Amino acid sequence: MAGSEQFNNASIRWSAAQRPQYDAIVKPDIEEDIQKTIRFANKQNKPFLAISGGHGTTSLISNVKHGIGILMTGMNNISIVDDGHAALIGGGALTGDVISYLWSHGKQTVTSGCDCVGYVAPVLGGGHGWLQGQYGLAADQLISARMVLANGEAITVSEESNPDLFWAIRGAGHNFGVVTQLKMKIYDREPERDQWAATGFVFTHDKMEDVFTIANGWLQESERPPGMVQYGLFMHNPEVDPVNPIVGMYIFWQGSSIPAKYTVPLYALSPVTVNASVTDLAGVNTHISANLDGASCAKGFSRAMIPVSLTSYSLLALRKVLDTFAAMPPEFRHSVMMLEGYPTNRVNEIPNDSTAFPNRDGQLLPSPVLTYPKNASLDATAWEIGSKIQSALLEGNGGNLEAYVNYARGDESMEELYGYEPWRLEKLRRLKKKYDPHGRFNFYAPIF
């Protein structure tokens, strides 16, 4: 109950800026516990919210008042089934748990770049990750799901059972239920591709245009390597430059070494530092400090994320973003501008209408991770900085905002989150009315 040490620990989120308020937190061990909790909450007219990694940064989570938290960490079992072709993953498993378990059993699947996030929620929003160039999004690996609906009913969702809902939860799944278990496609490790090489280059701000001209060239390759990830960063490092942000560019390569054609042009720009290492998929998240003990997983700060999807980089827009970072108040100097570029080879091959995920053409996921002390008076400043960055990127792109739902901040329209095709929105609204008519799952990127 509220006030206990267990309650306080369970309430701590990755970002203190989003503040759901609970009267109680329940830790279920089995699916029936979740059914009972939801039915009780409905009877008492209390909101409820599932908690796994606690990473969602949408402002709408703060609308949970006098609610019931459903702490999923007791349901984190993982097992391999179907002669090694699939895995059953509990609703409380963390991404790092999934990566490590599968890897130790000679398997792998599409997983995100952060060990401490819950595994289920990214899948429900599409799920970008390291292996998507080969296999598609994490949502494309979903075979079936067990879910507890808004009325407390537990169902199986798959191509054969409730296929309409199966379509919807692969991209808009936060709207429809509490997932108690996923059944996911898994793949054999390939010994010749077990290793992941990473080289991180750091440049002074004046090299930014040159660096991202090279990055744009990678995006335009006619035969883009499915195992290459580009990961740009803007951040402050006073040891390199006490005033201006530095520019980072990581190249991740599925293999023991990165081909010289990708590294030589960056070396030619005279980087300040270069850091090269080789690991495996089970350790690849350490490169960006997103392992369980890494800085990216630390709690106790406030954070804000503001998503934009792009097909290429506008150098003028990136310069505006860099200037915005340079002008941030001191409280925000631990922030990072993420410029993620996962390969999209297999993602683009899967029909756009096969799932609710709307944006298979997107090549890049720029988003600031604005990090600042836990202080409500700074939230408005974070919102202002984020809006300025988003506006600059949109102006440079010259198109409509397409926001990755897993990075949603709370003010996006349905079109921005779920696509601009009328048929897609009509289908989602119809399914929302059928499965959640009272909006019990409206605290994360709601369909309305």
From TrEMBL:
Keywords of the record: FAD, Flavoprotein, Oxidoreductase
- Keyword set includes DNA repair: no
GO terms, molecular function:
FAD binding; oxidoreductase activity
Cite the FAD-binding PCMH-type domain residue spans from the record: 18-189
What Pfam families does this protein map onto? BBE, FAD_binding_4
Top-level lineage group: Eukaryota
Instruction: Write down the required cofactor(s).
Output: FAD
Family of this protein? Belongs to the oxygen-dependent FAD-linked oxidoreductase family.
What protein am I looking at? FAD-binding domain-containing protein
Q: Which organism is it from?
A: Clathrospora elynae
Lineage runs: Eukaryota, Fungi, Dikarya, Ascomycota, Pezizomycotina
